Amino acid sequence: MYTRILVALENSPYDAAVLAHVRTLARLCGSAVIVIHVADGWAARNIRHLDLRESEEMRGDREYLNRIASELGEEGLEVDAILANGDPAREIADAAKREHCDLIAMSTHGHRFFSDLFYGSVADGVRHKSDVPVLLVRGSKSGGAGPTM
Fold this sequence. Notes:
Blueprint: E1 4-9, H1 15-29, E2 32-39, H2 42-50, H3 56-74, E3 79-85, H4 88-98, E4 103-108, H5 113-119, H6 122-129, E5 134-138
Helix pairs in contact: 4-6
C-alpha cells in the first residue's frame, strides 16, 4: 500500500510515538522510510543566503537523524535521512514530492485552539501544502504515545 514513507522528526521525545507506528507500518507494507528533520535555528534559516557553515545545533540534528536511520536500518528497514532547513511545512511537503513518498508521518503535540493559533501547526501547514496523505500520531513529552482519543 505504501512504498515510501516520509517521517518528519523534530529531535524531541515526541518522535518516539510516530517512529513506533512507522516501524510497524513499514514492515507490514515493505516500505522504505525517509526520515527528515527541518532545522529552524537562525543559522539554518539563513545558511543558503549568507553562505554560513552548519551550526552546532544542525550538527546535533544530523547526528540524531543518522542515529535514528541507523537504528531503523539495523531493524531491516530500507532508510534514508534528510536534514533540511527553512520553513518546516514547505520543506516536508517538498521532500515528500521530491522523494516520491506516498505517506507523510509526523507526531503532533495535541495543542488546543489558542496554542495552535499562537504557535502555528507544522502538521496543519503540511496537510495544506501537500497532496500526499498525512498520518498524524499524537506524541507526548515523555516519549511514548499520547493519550488515545
